[in-house]
Specification:
- The complex is a heterodimer of chains A (158) and B (84).
- With 158 residues, chain A is mainly beta.
- Chain A is built from two helices and ten strands.
- Chain A has helices at residues 64-67, 77-82, and strands at 2-5, 11-14, 20-21, 34-38, 47-51, 58-63, 97-107, 110-122, 127-130, 142-143.
- In chain A, the strands form two sheets. In chain A, strands 3, 4, 5, 6, 7, 8, 9 and 10 form an eight-stranded antiparallel beta sheet that branches.
- The termini of chain A are far apart.
- Chain B is of the alpha+beta class.
- Chain B folds into two domains: 1-37, no CATH class; 45-75, no CATH class.
- Chain B has a three-stranded antiparallel beta sheet, with no helix packed on it.
- Chain B is elongated and about 60 Å long.
- Residues 78-84 of chain B have low confidence and may be disordered.
- The chains are: A mainly beta (158), B alpha+beta (84).
- The interface between A and B is medium-sized, with 35 and 26 residues.
């Protein structure tokens, strides 16, 4: 059992097999190779992506379908290979992968989600990376509507 | 923006020491070769954008602002004044 020093929740226990390896880190945080997901019922569907090595580094995220119910993945063949996934087709959302949008909070009233570069996690091999889309179909600053995480709203159903 | 038409094998010069060559053209994209001094940073723009956005995302909010922001995402209704 690991003890993880977290940014928002003090020290939390975590099993080694829950850790996700990010072989390339995340852009601008290339040295951070290990993260855990913190999912608390009271914060659902929010997910916190906490760095193991750096307690002050914790990204706020949610499943990408929360931001856009019709979101279509476009992971490059190179990224799919790095995730140990079949590079012949896009992975199934909610199946073999968990796909998260990183959230930016500039102030209490304006939040955006990065739909251009989702974090893709292979749930089987526990590998992850930020998959920058090769197209320009989605914004890196997708505006999040207030109330989006309200579990009663249809947008949050996924 | 300066727009030029180049064929495969043709090159462009930017400043004194940056050379861009069109290596191949296909339906999926254009293959480009760049010759530049080692200290010149060459990045795909999407990567730069992602780096910058990650910096913003990592900064986040703290304390009451953070709670208030979460509350705002959770509910469209008025924010609890105790969180202010």
């Amino acid at each position: 059992m690991l003890s993880v020093q977290t940014k928002y929740f003090g020290i939390l226990p975590c099993r080694e097999e829950e850790v996700f390896e990010f072989p390339r880190g995340l852009p601008a945080f290339e040295q951070e190779k290990r993260f855990v997901l913190i999912q608390l019922p009271e914060n659902a569907p929010l997910i916190f992506l906490q760095s193991l090595a750096q307690p002050t580094l914790c990204f706020l995220a949610f499943p990408i379908l929360v931001a856009d119910r019709d979101y279509k993945l476009a992971v490059t063949a190179e990224d799919l290979a790095a995730l140990d996934l079949d590079s012949g087709h896009q992975p199934e959302l909610g199946g073999e992968v968990l796909v998260l949008a990183l959230v930016s909070l500039r102030d209490a009233f304006s939040a955006t989600a990065n739909l251009m570069a989702p974090v893709v996690l292979n749930l089987k091999t526990r590998r992850g990376l930020q998959a920058i889309r090769p197209d320009r179909l989605y914004s890196h600053q997708h505006l999040i509507q207030p109330g989006i995480l309200d579990v009663r709203s249809p947008e949050a159903a996924c | 923006m300066l727009v030029l038409r180049r064929r495969v094998g043709e090159t462009l010069l930017i400043g004194e020491d940056v050379e861009i060559e069109v290596l191949a053209i296909a339906a999926q994209g254009v293959k480009i070769g760049i010759r530049a001094p080692r200290e010149t940073v060459v990045l795909r723009k999407e990567l730069k954008i992602t780096q910058e956005q990650n910096e913003v995302a990592a900064q986040g909010l703290t304390g009451a602002d953070f709670k208030q922001a979460l509350e705002k995402l959770r509910s469209n209704s008025k924010i609890d004044p105790s969180l202010r």
